Amino acid sequence: MAIKKEHLPGRVQVKGTMLHAHLDWLSKKLQQPASALLPHLSPDCQKAIVPGILATDWIKLAHLVAIDHAIVKLSGRQPEDVFRELGHHSAVANLSGVYKSFVGDEPHRFFEGQARLHGRFQDFGRSVYEKVGERSGRIRLDGYVEYSPVFCLSAVGYYQGALETMHVPGPIGVLETQCTCAGDPVCSFELRW
């Protein structure tokens, strides 16, 4: 497998709802997550924590990734596991909460809708969903001018959590088969349920 690289000049952004979900995950592990995070963050990143941002605000992808790295330090766990759990928690928290109306019981329709709404949650790249079989599909993300393995692992967890939220029969499988961070032209995720 190719070595995965990160490219985060700090020009692209994601919605604050992603940060809120990640902080919520940490709050279930620590009593004072904000004060614990601050010493591990640059002054610019600290502004996303204190005074904080709204779920509808934009945050630099580079800041979200830096905060996720700080969350890993505080957790004391394996980074890959934590990044996937952050994405999973984001799906479960958001899709059973504020974005509940987006979730149905038909995964193909859900992921097609997610691809159309991609620009509402990040201001870079494109998402395309392809139905592969009755209980399988493929998500292709391209045009990512900034990228990080952290974001890709979080995506794996998100897609897993989204499928669980839909109560699909399973077994659920999510595998990233191509990755921009490894030099591939796209990130491609194979989903099965």
Domain module count: 1
**Percent in strands:** 15-25%
Strand order within the widest sheet? 3-4-6-5
CATH class: Alpha Beta
Helix share bin: 40-55%
- Overall pLDDT confidence: 94
* Measured distance between first and last alpha carbons: 26 Å
Report the structural category.
alpha+beta
Describe the structure.
There is one protein chain. This protein is of the alpha+beta class and 193 residues long. Helix 1 packs parallel to helix 4 (61-75) and helix 1 packs across helix 5. The chain has a single domain (13-192), classed as H-NOX domain. It is globular. The strands form 2 sheets. It has a 4-stranded antiparallel beta sheet with strand order 3-4-6-5, covered by helices on one side. The mean pLDDT is 94. A hairpin with an 8-residue loop joins strand 5 (173-178) and strand 6 (187-192). It has 8 helices and 6 strands. The chain has helices at residues 16-27, 33-37, 43-52, 61-75, 79-95, 107-116, 118-121, 149-165, and strands at 13-15, 58-60, 126-133, 136-142, 173-178, 187-192.
Based on the model shown, name its key terms:
two-stranded antiparallel sheet, four-stranded antiparallel β-sheet, H-NOX domain, 6 strands, single chain, alpha+beta
Describe how the helices and strands are arranged.
Blueprint: E1 13-15, H1 16-27, H2 33-37, H3 43-52, E2 58-60, H4 61-75, H5 79-95, H6 107-116, H7 118-121, E3 126-133, E4 136-142, H8 149-165, E5 173-178, E6 187-192
Antiparallel strand pairs: 1-2, 3-4, 4-6, 5-6
Helix pairs in contact: 1-4, 1-5, 4-5, 5-8
